[in-house]
Specification:
1 helix; globular; mainly beta
Length: about 130
């Protein structure tokens, strides 16, 4: 017998309204709905020129961000890098990161491993 789960990421509940980040951010986290034991996946849609208002890092898990539509910039510790469609960005555990969408907005699929409870957030971490 096969063991698998199929979920449409766009049909998973949007967590952003619960954090007061809608409509500039849409965030759908698939780890629990998919029943993942070793990893996770999420979908984020970020409005044009919107910067996520907090940085975050994970103590143990690395993440891979795949920009599937649009463009933007990521701040990774002290570095700010431009990213474009189909760029994949691996972020190591312990690295603080944040995302800012370009003029056409951005859509990302994010892959992680391990327990999502190892994260720490930093409000206002990326300021000009």
């Amino acid at each position: 017998m096969s063991d698998y789960t199929i979920k449409n990421l766009k049909e998973i509940e949007d967590a952003a309204p619960g954090f007061g980040l809608s409509p500039n951010l849409e965030a759908r986290f698939g780890r629990k709905p998919l029943g993942c034991e070793q990893g996770g996946v999420g979908y984020e849609r970020i409005a044009a020129n919107f910067r996520v208002p907090f940085g975050h890092k994970h103590a143990h898990q690395e993440e891979v961000y795949v920009l599937v539509n649009g463009s933007g910039r990521m701040k990774l510790e002290d570095d700010i890098v431009d990213v474009q469609q189909w760029d994949a960005i691996r972020v190591a555990a312990g690295t603080t990161r944040n995302f800012e969408a370009g003029p056409d907005g951005a859509e990302l699929v994010v892959f992680g491993a391990g327990d999502s409870g190892d994260g720490e957030t930093f409000p206002g971490w990326w300021s000009d």
